[in-house]
Amino acid sequence: MKPNTDERNHNLTQKRVVVSGAAGFIGSHMCNRLLADGHTVVALDNFLTGSPRNLAHLEGHTRFRFVEQDITLPFAVDGAVDGPLDGVVNMASPASPKDYLEHPIETLDVGFIGTRRMLELAPGEGRPLPDHFHLRVLMATR
Ligand SMILES: NC(=O)c1ccc[n+]([C@@H]2O[C@H](COP(=O)([O-])OP(=O)(O)OC[C@H]3O[C@@H](n4cnc5c(N)ncnc54)[C@H](O)[C@@H]3O)[C@@H](O)[C@H]2O)c1
Fold this sequence. Notes:
By secondary structure, this protein is α/β, with parallel strands linked by helices. It has a single domain (5-139), classed as Rossmann fold (3-Layer(aba) Sandwich). Helices cover 32% and strands 16% of the residues. The chain is built from 4 helices and 5 strands. A 5-stranded parallel β-sheet has the order 3-2-1-4-5, sandwiched between helices. Helix 2 links the parallel strand 1 and strand 2 (40-45). The longest helix has 18 residues, at 104-121. Mean pLDDT is 85; it is low at 3-10.
């Protein structure tokens, strides 16, 4: 049976996106939205300020994979997705004055080293942006 137009459009626009800070407030909502839009999500978090509870409802989702990872440490997502990454969403960082005071060094490190490591995953030179996809990198303000 031939796929209908909606299914064909869906397949054309389905992308593979890595989301850091996925167990946090904004990151978990980003995961929900990307999955609802038909994308595949690799979620990274070290639970510094986030909680597994924020992702519990996604356990077993066929297009969702969670990797417990401190993004300031070396890591790769090769193998976590079937094919190259299409987009990077970087939401990993403590996000309130209370959290900054509790985790000052971690806040500095994730803002600099973590951001750099996430940028290194992004489509770029030799990894062109696919058609029909306008997201390359999305960063939270800090
Ligand atoms: N919440 C807001 O209203 C708001 C507004 C503007 C900007 N922001 C920015 O958005 C980002 C996320 O905010 P939030 O409210 O979701 O915070 P949050 O604390 O709920 O989420 C941050 C997540 O990042 C994770 N994390 C921290 N360091 C990490 C590391 N080294 N490796 C992997 N994961 C790590 C935490 O465990 C947590 O799950 C922050 O940069 C924040 O400044 C938030």
